[in-house]
Amino acid sequence: EDRLRRKSSIIVSQIPINRWHEIIGNPTIADAICDRIVHSAHRIELKGESVRKIYARKEHIEEAQ
């Protein structure tokens, strides 16, 4: 809480925010995390196919040739 609005943190997740309560399991802890992280966050949601999958497919095609 000392960092609130004074320092930055970068948090990445492959789990959508709407599933955090389910994954965390404890509603009190999930609420605390969401209150501190989600509500004051700048969110960037990346869409599209995984770059790893694209490169793996490309390598597979090149190996087959």
From TrEMBL:
Pfam families attached to this UniProt entry: IstB_IS21
InterPro entries tied to this protein: IstB_ATP-bd, P-loop_NTPase
Domain annotation IstB-like ATP-binding: ranges: 2-54
Molecular functions per Gene Ontology: ATP binding
Name by which UniProt lists this protein: IstB-like ATP-binding domain-containing protein
Organism expressing this protein natively: marine sediment metagenome
UniProt lineage: unclassified sequences, metagenomes, ecological metagenomes
